[in-house]
Specification:
By secondary structure, this protein is α/β, with parallel strands linked by helices. It is built from eleven helices and ten strands. Helix 6 links the parallel strand 1 (102-107) and strand 2 (135-142). Bound molecules: S-adenosylmethionine (SAM).
Amino acid sequence: MENLEILKFFANYIQSELGIVYVEANYFQLEHRLKDISVQLGYQDIVGLYQTARNGIFGQMKSLLLDLATNNETSFFRDQSIFKALSESMIPDIIKGGKKPSIQIWSAASSSGQEVYSIAMEIDQAKQLNSDIPYFRIFASDVSETILKRAEAGIYSQLEVQRGLPTKLMLHYFDKNEEDKWVVKPFIKSGITFQKLNLLHNWGSIGPFDIIFCRNVLIYQSVENKIKIIQELLKQLNPGGYLVLGAAESLFGLSQDFEQIVHGTAVFFRKK
Ligand SMILES: C[S@@+](CC[C@H](N)C(=O)[O-])C[C@H]1O[C@@H](n2cnc3c(N)ncnc32)[C@H](O)[C@@H]1O
């Protein structure tokens, strides 16, 4: 069998699972990564990998194929102004009616966890100043099992903490381990639940949430997939709940169910 047909097979699989399209011009990249996976799984070459894969893709092979195509770039307090908007605008608005026992937040493509812990630290800091802010729970999900395990472990290198984490917060919320890595303290982790979830598949009942962070993941999707995912996110939001997208993302042409809110330089969306 020609390698081209094998590459098409895997490109189609990745597209159906993740919505991420490998055009033929990038097949050399796909082939290179499939060769690595073949070696990791003990096959001689990608033909061996394909012969097993065509009978069904499960377990470690599935996990490696999904990891191959996803970009996990993230950092602490990425696009900092949105975290100020969270504590200064979104949360005060959500609790303004009073009597809210808890705030529910979802980080829908949490990658290695920097986003989730940044949310938790921002709210914990805000709670020091405003005792009306109730208990909060964060649901963190990602399609990649590998990256989700990293998020749950909450262990970061010096280089990773230097990307966006202020020293004051690092010393307050992290401990240093024997390997000179920074480990998130249990108290800040305790309100966070981690779960594997593909935004393109049916999620079942996971909400409702007051705020959903879905940042820097829709960018890789077709317009149809973006619309579908946004409709599903909408259903998971409480009335008046907030949707936060990446700094370069917008709802333009995708949904009219939200009003755009601006706070400082941050832009986010409120369910109408
Ligand atoms: C570029 S990272 C963004 C991380 C974080 N939200 C941020 O903005 O810093 C994109 C993440 O989306 C995840 N992802 C890609 N496709 C997905 C899908 N269909 N469902 C859920 N997560 C997905 C990837 O595994 C990756 O961790």
